[in-house]
Amino acid sequence: MGGVIGKAESPRNGWIPETKLEAKMVEAMQRRALEGTSMRSFNSVILKFPKIDESLRNCKAIFEQFDEDANGAIDPGELKHCFEKLEITFTEEEISDLFEGCDINENMGMKFNEFIVLLCLVYLLKEDPAALHAKSRMGLPNLEATFETLVDAFVFLDKNKDGCVSKSEMVHAINETTSGERSSGRIAMKRFEEMDWDKNGMVTFKEFLFAFTRWVGIDDIEEEEDAEEKV
Q1: Are the CB atoms for 115 and 59 separated by under 8 Å?
Q2: SS (H, E, C) 129-166
Q3: How far apart are CA 144 and CA 76, in angstroms?
Q4: For residues 229 and 71, what is the distance between their CA atoms, to the nearest angstrom?
Q5: Rounded distance, CA 97 to CA 68, Å?
Q6: Is 110 helix (H, G, I), strand (E, B) or coil?
Q7: Mind listing the GO molecular function terms for this protein (predicted)?
């Protein structure tokens, strides 16, 4: 485990974030949870998939702009240039934490779906005017609304407002939508297993985002492109 931050431990479930980044994410989600959510059911989250999908796919141009050697992945140096161009002020340590946190395959190259997760975490963690200015300069006015929808969806699932989603919270959220359907418990378990990347029984916002890129088919884009290149 990396730099464990005991303070961020949730008294409800005993889960401890593994890195400073995880701790910041949990704190940010706890703050957002206090503001409430406009989501009323898991179905309302699902209905937004097509719009979210379209908005996230529009990030491809930004990704290609910062993938300077056009190898289909953003390396740490390219990520640093990306932040410099967008005038987002992160320390070297924060950039390193973000890169390591989003480079799920640990291959020192951030794929498109990993880059989307990173952008959303930047949105969540940096709410200062400079970051807002940078986001508007990206030329994607819908991106902020999309990220806000994703935050809203996570807050809806996080019933006890501790910054993470547990298995029982996932079951609760899906049962609210599909009351009386026998399959709802199985659906909830399947969705939870897809989200719980590290299999520790708790889902962070980052894990939720990675699952989301799979649900709406963002990571399929790369598989399709890889297949085309091989033809």
Answers
A1: yes
A2: HHHHHHHHHCCCHHHHHHHHHHHHHHHHHCCCCCCCEE
A3: 24
A4: 12
A5: 21
A6: strand
A7: calcium ion binding
- Among positive and negative, which fits the CA dihedral 66, 133, 8, 3? positive
- Alpha carbon of 32 to those of 154, 178, 213: distances in Å? 10, 26, 22
- Smallest CA-to-CA distance from 206 within 144, 120, 145 is with 120
Reported as type and span, the H/E element at residue 202 is strand 202-203
Query: In a 10 Å sphere around its CB, with 0-12 CB exposed, 13-18 middle and 19+ buried, how is residue 40 labelled?
Result: exposed
Query: Would you say 73 and 109 are in contact if contact means Cβ atoms under 8 Å apart?
Result: yes
Question: Across the strands, what pairs with 165?
Answer: 203
Q: Which CATH superfamily is domain 20-216 in?
A: EF-hand (1.10.238.10)
Report the alpha-carbon distance of residue 150 to residue 138 in Å, rounded: 19
Single-letter amino acid code for the residue at 224: E
Do the Cβ atoms of 219 and 213 come closer than 8 Å? yes
pTM above 0.90, yes or no: no
Amino acid at 153: A
User: Mind listing the pLDDT tens digit for each residue in 135-193?
Assistant: 555 555 568 888 889 999 999 999 999 999 999 998 888 877 655 555 667 777 888 88
Looking at the DSSP bridge assignments, the partners of residue 74 are: 110
Query: 3-58, pLDDT tens digit by residue?
Result: 333 333 333 444 565 678 888 889 999 999 998 898 888 888 888 888 888 888 88
